[in-house]
Design goal:
The protein is of the alpha/beta class and 436 residues long. The protein is 46% helix and 12% strand.
Length: 436
């Protein structure tokens, strides 16, 4: 009953039914949320428009993350930019470097006279998007982290009752699942650079790049070709021979392998939870990422993916007051509770997390809190607070190419990761020269 009251309160506050606010000032937000996520965005925007009459927010879907960011940059150059744009986390350094184009959120909120307490936000989420002195540059919106989804029916058939905790167990459990006929393959993955290199590094508290992964300076260099990284990627490549691991593609392309019961486990973004509930015909659990017990006694913390809302300069003072009010609304406890419970993303405020935790939601939805616990159970180290690397959108493409060459057997992990480091460093130097 308490959970139901929370959801009803969220629905009433958000204004689930369609309607247009009678607002005098128009503000515009470009985003990359399609499908069911886009519907949730429209619900939130509709709720804001119905909650007051001074401003009307217009949400515009501009395609995937890369397309949305590219469109915003082109629009700014043409002086036709939106007030707000959703940018994924790998674009953070690029956005920070665009100083003449960006209106930092903390400054905009202060200028607009909107109360803004950064301590309200979950530190593991906002730390990725703050200055060195803790000032928030962009407002976290859809934040997630990679987790393990596991097929409970397949595990039961194989005589297993929990997800593997270590990569050593990942291999053993997968072989048992396959030999018992419970599944064709052990596990598949998504967003491979993010899950198998970036988060692998923070989870094992090893550097992905020098200079605190770019937080401490532009003169950073990649180091994800260390012996531990090479061992991990080579093991995945070797496991393909026995179907322990099966590569299904970039982003969420491998998700159907899990949803159709072919692979018993999926390592991908926690944000896919809602979609998997709809696409699977079996009960599945959500568990923390595995770690190499031969390398660490316990894991450190994972880092977020997803995107934040950046404010672009060029609007009027009144328009930015509307943007500030919208961001205050976005941070409301019920809005965040709705967003968290109806997608797979984590809430950005401590209040929304506590409200959900104190209801029976996590009891009825086992594993939905794994992402938050995994990110925030330990204070981050210099290796695990996140990445801030220039040209990283393009560098992710390089990583995908090199990893796919490794999976295809065209390169060893040592050669492929070494080539990725060399190619990636050239783009880091290009970014450094452009922003000195």
């Amino acid at each position: 009953m308490r959970q139901m009251k929370i959801l009803i309160s969220a629905i009433l506050m958000l204004g689930m039914f369609s309607g247009t606010a009678f607002s005098a000032t128009q503000i515009e937000w470009w985003h990359a949320m399609g499908g069911a996520l886009g519907e949730a965005v429209n619900t939130i925007v509709g709720g804001f428009n119905r909650s007051q009459t001074e401003y009307e927010m217009k949400a515009v879907y501009k395609g995937n993350y890369t397309e949305t960011m590219t469109a915003a940059i082109a629009a700014f150059r043409a002086k036709k930019q939106p007030h707000v744009v959703q940018v994924f986390e790998v674009g953070t350094a690029t956005m920070m470097a665009a100083k003449g184009a960006i209106y930092p959120v903390h400054q905009m909120m202060e200028d607009a006279g909107q109360p803004f307490d950064e301590s309200r936000y979950i530190s593991a989420v906002i730390g990725y998007y703050t200055t060195t002195d803790g000032k928030l540059l962009s407002l976290p919106f859809n934040s997630s982290t990679p987790v393990v989804f596991w097929n409970k029916a397949a595990f039961a058939k194989a005589g297993l009752d929990r997800a593997p905790k270590t990569w050593e167990e990942m291999g053993k459990f997968s072989k048992k699942l396959i030999s018992s006929g419970a599944s064709e393959c052990g596990f598949t993955i998504g967003w491979q650079s993010w899950s198998m290199l970036e988060n692998f590094s923070t989870w094992h508290d090893v550097a992905f790049a020098t200079k605190e992964n770019g937080f401490a300076g532009l003169d950073t260099e990649f180091v994800f070709d260390s012996p531990l990284h090479v061992k991990h990627i080579q093991q995945l490549a070797d496991w393909q021979k026995d179907n322990v691991f099966r590569y299904g593609g970039r982003r969420g392309d491998g998700n159907p392998l899990f949803a159709e019961g072919k692979c018993a486990m999926l390592i991908n973004s926690s944000a896919y939870y809602g979609g998997l509930v709809k696409s699977t015909k079996f009960d599945f659990g959500t568990s923390q990422l595995p770690y190499w017990a031969s390398a660490v006694s316990e894991p450190q913390n994972s880092i977020i993916g997803g995107a934040t809302l950046w404010v672009l300069k060029g609007g009027t003072k009144d328009e930015y007051k509307g943007v500030a009010k919208f961001m205050t609304y976005m941070s409301d406890v019920f809005v965040q509770t709705y967003w968290h419970q109806n997608t797979g993303y984590v809430p950005i405020t401590n209040e929304a997390y506590e409200l959900t935790k104190n209801s029976d939601y996590y009891k009825k939805n086992e594993g939905r809190d794994v992402a938050i616990i995994q990110m925030s159970s330990k204070p981050p180290t210099s290796n695990s607070k996140g990445l801030r690397l220039g040209n990283f959108v393009q560098i992710r493409d390089i990583l995908n190419e090199e990893l796919e060459a490794i999976w295809a057997g065209k390169k060893t992990a040592k050669v492929g990761l070494g080539d990725a480091v060399s190619r990636g460093n050239k783009l880091l130097r290009k970014f450094e020269r452009a922003n000195r």
